[in-house]
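Assemble and predict.
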Amino acid sequence: GESVGLHLPTLSVQEGDNSIINCAYSNSASDYFIWYKQESGKGPQFIIDIRSNMDKRQGQRVTVLLNKTVKHLSLQIAATQPGDSAVYFCAEEMRGATNKLIFGTGTLLAVQP
Amino acid sequence: EPEVTQTPSHQVTQMGQEVILRCVPISNHLYFYWYRQILGQKVEFLVSFYNNEISEKSEIFDDQFSVERPDGSNFTLKIRSTKLEDSAMYFCASKGNQETQYFGPGTRLLVL
């Protein structure tokens, strides 16, 4: 079946360290992936995306890596800050008329000062 | 920066009552979505809407649910007869010609 899942439900890091959040997807036909950040009581906030014709994309302090061979996605956050504390979801966009998103279960990133 | 807005932020209702959740998508977007998130769980797709009709709906989106775009700016989700298990955060999202869906802040629905 189709699924998007995360390896680690909780990740605790020290302020200033780099964080790596991982995600596995199962639908090899998916060609667009997004990372969202969700703070408590708020909606998912777009962080970064990547198409399947790329294996790496960089933003401001964030990098997304895509390994299509093993169907693995990761989000790297450089110099993690307390404001980065949130739940991070990867989402897989199902190509088609609707482009609905299939979300993973989420990883809680806790940044220790 | 344009954003998706939703009202109300919180809604408490009695089981069996009808609720309408409202969303104002980003103004030039054409694709609209509703998702829900039960407390502590992942975000789940409910329905997508394009060109004034439903383009896809999930198994969750049964006959008790309906969506409407009553005018050029609002997009609503109606639950006709709420059940306890409808308690969740409901998120509206919209998308333009680019691929990224942008989410609203959500409505927290509590059914008693």
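Residues 4-108 of chain A form a domain with the Immunoglobulin-like fold (CATH 2.60.40.10).
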